[in-house]
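Bench notes, afternoon.
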Amino acid sequence: METILIVEDDRVYARTTANWLVKNGINARYVLSVDAAKVFLESHEVDLVLSDFRLNDSNGVELLEWMKVQGYRMPFFIMTGYGDIPGAVEAVKKGATDYLPKPVQTEKVLGIIRGLLDCRNRKKAAERTFYVGKSPLAVKLQDIVRVVAPADSLSVLILGASGTGKEYVARQIHALSGRADAPFIAVDCGALPKELAASELFGHVKGAFTGATENKTGMFAAANHGTLFLDEVGNLSMEVQMLLLRALQEKHYRPVGGKEEVKADIRLVAATNEDLERAITEGRFREDLFHRLNEFPLYVPLLAECPEDIIPLAEFMLDIANRELEKNVKGFDRETRKRLKAYPWPGNIRELKGAVKRAALLAKDDWITSEDMDLPNKLKQAEVYALNDERAERTTILKALEATGNDRKAAAKLLGISRSTLYLKLKKYCLD
């Protein structure tokens, strides 16, 4: 059950407010000081805070600022008497959700609280449907996703190698946003026929071109009020890039062959495994569109960069495979777990998912064996340290540094590059 924490130095008012919430089906606890509130928050899961503005020798703003520093992100309301409204308004400017004039025991306030708790529950449920990473890079990515998801006005560009789960991240952003109840529409731009890409995205009117025998709504219309995810956005033609840029800037678009503008109420999330800045210099991608898409870039790490996640992620995928295949495989035996951790996973999460599903299907007993998993032998050292794939360069450089005990001269030799080139790449990938 959701928990509301009441911070109020008047014991009678605190108890009265808590009892009122409990009678209305909401779990509520109260404390009488900022220090007590800090202790409670550190030891309990809290979904919403109701804090008085004046608290003996402290105030609710001090608690709010402490919570922000500690990373607490639940709704925070200031309860205030008439004379403290200016201070409460200032608290809202500093990050409080809103202020509530005393007494707060009204149907209106109850409706506000229930609405926020329902929204918070939906977001928690959405988080539980996704694997939550444990490795440092995965934890950092999850933290950033939680911050950017509610920022509806920002376009997000997800960067990462093929198979790293960019669409998975895009779905998380949608599920944790204010548009979670609206459609999430994913478009593989690499699979769009160039001559029909504009029609697929924006729709067309009857007679717009040969074969347009009736009106058609496009992906923008399908994603109305929701999120449109454009995977491999670098594959769009320059003409379609221009139309996309206009739709994002003007928040309107025109179906192919149409005369009337249609409102574009979508949140755009794009993804690519291509170096778009190089594509700009080569004249294949519009610089103005790049900056519009790149308002908030996210880097999805390679699976090899997140070794702590390989086994938990494999188990998560095994649960999914069991449901899909109607099997009841319990897990991986000891030797298979070793093989899973030792294998470099050049195909990233996509490769892991396929390998687990195939092994679950082949498993004859309760536990998947290395024979069921049938992973290739480790890549040869020369292949592991070759910088022949720009998308995997960062991981390859990290491997070389680890193998040489951070001896940069030796690492450069292992990578087959000069020390000056290595230093440039260290700077490029923020490893210096």
